[in-house]
User: Fold these one by one.
Assistant:
Number 1:
Amino acid sequence: MSLSREAQNPHAPFDPRRYHELVAGERTEVAQRPPVCLYLEVTNRCNLLCTTCPRTYEQLEPPADMSWDLFVSIVDQVPGLARAVLHGVGEPMLVADLPRMVGYLKDRGVYVVFNTNGTVLSERNGRALIDACLDELRVSLTRQIARASRRSAAEIISAASSATCEHFANYRSGRATLSRWYPSG
C-alpha cells in the first residue's frame, strides 16, 4: 500500500474544510498524522424537541455545558488543529462561553463551524460571534419549517437565509448595522 503525499508528510498544508479528503487508500492501525479536526459537543442542552434529534426521545445524560477549563484542556492537546466543529446533540448558542471558545480557536488559526437551530440568534450574540471571527454558521430550519403552515419550505429557507446572511455579511464587512435579523411576514 502506498501512502498519499499528505500521509507521507503529516505537516503538508491542506484546506481545513476538506480535511476528510486526507484519508487515502486503506487506513492503518496507527494514524499516520495527528488529528486536524475536532468535534466538540459544547452542550447537550437544547431549547427544542425536534423529531430528527435523538435527545427528543431519550435523555442519555444530565443536561450540561462543557466547562471552559475542559474546553481549553482538550483544544490544547491538539497543537496542529485546523478545524473545530462545535456541536453535537445540543444547541451551541445556549452556551454563554461560545464566543470566547470561538475566539480561543481563532487565535490558534483554526477554522470554526457549528450548527444552530437559530431560535436564540440575536443581534447581540450574532455580533459576538462575528467579532470572535466565526468562519461558518449553519442554521437548521427543520423545526421552523414544521411549524409553518402558510408558506412553503423553500420560501422560508430563501427568506431566512438571505436576510440573515445579508445582515451578517454587512456587519462583518463594516457596511451596516444589524437592525433586522429575521424576515417579516
Number 2:
Amino acid sequence: MKIKHFLAMFFLFAACQSQAAFINFNSLSETSYDGPDSFQDLNGSTSISSDGLTATITGNAWKAFTGGNFIIDSTTVLHFLFSASGNVEVGAIGFDNDTTAAVPDVLKVAGWQNYGTSVYNYVLGSGTVAISIDIGTLYSAGTYSNIFLILDKDAGSQSLSLNFSNVELCSSNTECITTGASLTVSEPSPLLIMALVIALLPMARRIKATKK
C-alpha cells in the first residue's frame, strides 16, 4: 500500500473518532439560573477568562450557560479544576435543558448547606483541586444544552468566590484531555467502514487496470 493511501486511511479513521474538549464558556450564552424558590441569582457576578476555559463566580450567583451540546452516557465522567474562598453555603455544577434547578441534578462540591447531590467535600484553604465525578451514573443518558454553576450565599458576607476551570466531559468513546486516555473502540462504526471503502476504491481500480 502506498504511503499516501495509508495516510488517507489514518486521517479518515481519526476523523471518525470523538475527541473531548474543555468547555469554552465564551461560546455559550449566560443567563440567570432559578433555584427551587426562584430569585436565587442575587448580588453576584461572573467573569470568564479570555480563553473561555475558566469561569469565576462571586457573591450570591446562580448562572446557566446555554447553547451547548453536552452528551452524557453511562460511562461519562465530568472533570474540572476547582477552588473556593469564603464561607460558601452551596458550590455546585450541573447540566440541564432548562434554567430551573432540579435538586438531584445539582452536583454539590463545596459548602456546608445540605442541598443537591453531594459529590465532593471541598475544604477551604485547599487551593485548586482536580475533581472527577462519575456523572454518567447520576444523570439520565442524553444531550444537555446547558451547564450551570451555583454559588449560594444568602446570609452574611458575600465576599467569596468559586473558580471552575478546564471543565470536560469524557466518555468511553472519546479521547480525554484531562486524563490523556485514548478512546476505546469495540467495533468499527458504519461511517468508518464506508470511509475506508471509499478511500480504497481508487487503489482497487488501479490494481485492476494494471492486470489488463
